[in-house]
Amino acid sequence: MGFWPFSRKPSKDVAKQRLQVILKYDRAGLPPNSVEALKNAILNALKDFPFVDVSGVKINFPQNEREEKIELEIPVKADK
Amino acid sequence: MKDKVFCVTSGKGGVGKSTITGNIATALAMQGYKVVAIDADIGLRNLDLVLGLENRIVYDIVHVIEGTCPPEKALVKDKKTKNLFLLPAAQTKDKSAVKPENMIAIVESLREKFDFMFIDSPAGIEDGFKTAVAAADGVLVVTNPEMASIRDADRVTGLCEAMGKPEPKLIVNRLDPVKVKRGDMLDVDDVMQILGLELIGIVPEDKSMVAYINRGQPAVLEKDSLAGKALRNIADRLLGKDVPFMKLDSENGFLSKFKKLFGGS
Ligand SMILES: Nc1ncnc2c1ncn2[C@@H]1O[C@H](COP(=O)(O)OP(=O)(O)OP(=O)(O)O)[C@@H](O)[C@H]1O
Ligand SMILES: [Mg+2]
């Protein structure tokens, strides 16, 4: 705040947001952004399949370094 | 069995581990419990300074491991605070001089004779940290409300879990209510949410802390110190007492004391 009382969000909120992302990757022992990148690549590939409900695709973040898989949930459209 | 051996650790350096270890140990000894504070920061000892005991050290933890003297004989008895003892770190050796099994052997040989033991961990996540944590029943993770320190605290938490320790309890140190209010410092709730740990203490930023260390006089001995009170509260929570967390709003600081002094609210 301070200098930009209306336009900027408090720096602590930015810190919190960043930390929440950083810790997810730290805990999983994965390189930064890698799961996001994987998700985007998969979403792109899924566009070719009309029966897939792309908006409902979920990718499961591993909770710690010992978890050895990333889970992917691909819902199928009701009116396929 | 109630937990009696606690390791104070943080990952990041300089967040207040030694200060907090010395103060909680003093606070419990003030209440009549027999307490040992063990400095596990081999080569960079500091806990003696916090307690004002640097001139009284004869033996250290490495002498004990080398068999020069038994653990009891290396303990430095605090004259200000009855029931408080320090097992100093060696200043001229390096971290490899104390192995996890050494720490466990020392702690176990003292366990029956004391009510509480606090192990002041070195910064980092390497062998020195692992040795410090090895003998502990419980872990207290210290963090400052600041990004790097929080990230390191999370890392240390994961390592403790991998070592089979119970989930650490969280101490947020150097909270500055003015910065929180301004929106430039994470609040305790934010830190708890990010780390997902149970909170056991909030210690405010205290400008006098450096003076207390200059004098070798822990803050808990100062009746009027807000940080001292916060640290005494942590000791009480370790005793199982249900002490509410202090309200640390920016009103609570210097200005309101100033106002009180002059008859304001
Ligand atoms: N609540 C506080 N308010 C103000 N200053 C503080 C507070 N807690 C600690 N400090 C100061 O921070 C500095 C570092 O503290 P301390 O030596 O206890 O950290 P540490 O985590 O043990 O460091 P290291 O990782 O080097 O062992 C000291 O100068 C101390 O006075
Ligand atoms: Mg220290």
CATH superfamily of chain B: P-loop containing nucleotide triphosphate hydrolases
Strand order of the largest sheet of chain B: 3-4-2-5-1-6-7-8
Specify the biggest β-sheet of chain B.
8 strands, mixed
Count every beta strand of chain A, where a strand is a DSSP E run of 2 or more residues.
2
Q: What is the straight-line distance between the termini of chain B?
A: 47 Å
Structural class of chain A: mainly alpha
Q: Return the CATH architecture of chain B.
A: 3-Layer(aba) Sandwich
Question: How many DSSP helices of chain B?
Answer: 12
Strand % of chain A is 5-15%
Kindly report the CATH topology of chain B.
Rossmann fold
Proportion of residues in helical segments of chain B: 40-55%
Roughly what fraction of the amino acids of chain B lie in strands? 15-25%
Instruction: Tell me the distance between the termini of chain A.
Output: 51 Å
Instruction: Tell me the quaternary state.
Output: heterodimer
Total strands of chain B: the figure is 8
> Which overall shape of chain B is indicated by the principal axes computed on the Cα atoms?
globular
Explain what the structure shows.
The complex is a heterodimer of chains A (about 80) and B (about 260). By secondary structure, chain A is mainly alpha-helical. Chain A has two helices and two strands, in the order H-H-E-E. Chain A has a two-stranded antiparallel ribbon with strand order 1-2. The relative contact order of chain A is 0.14. Chain B contains twelve helices and eight strands. Chain B has helices at about 15-30, 45-50, 60-65, 70-75, 100-110, 125-135, 145-160, 175-180, 190-195, 210-215, 225-240, 255-260, and strands at about 5-10, 35-40, 75, 85, 115-120, 140-145, 170-175, 200-205. In chain B, strands 3-4-2-5-1-6-7-8 form an eight-stranded mixed β-sheet, sandwiched between helices. In chain B, helix 7 (about 145-160) links the parallel strand 6 (about 140-145) and strand 7. Chain B is globular, with a radius of gyration of 18 Å. Chain B starts with a strand and ends with a helix. Classes of the chains: A mainly alpha (about 80), B alpha/beta (about 260). Chains A and B meet through helix 1 of A and helix 7 and helix 9 of B. The complex binds adenosine-5'-triphosphate and magnesium ion (MG). Adenosine-5'-triphosphate binds next to helix 1, strand 7 and helix 10 of chain B. Magnesium ion (MG) binds near residues 17, 18 and 46 of chain B.
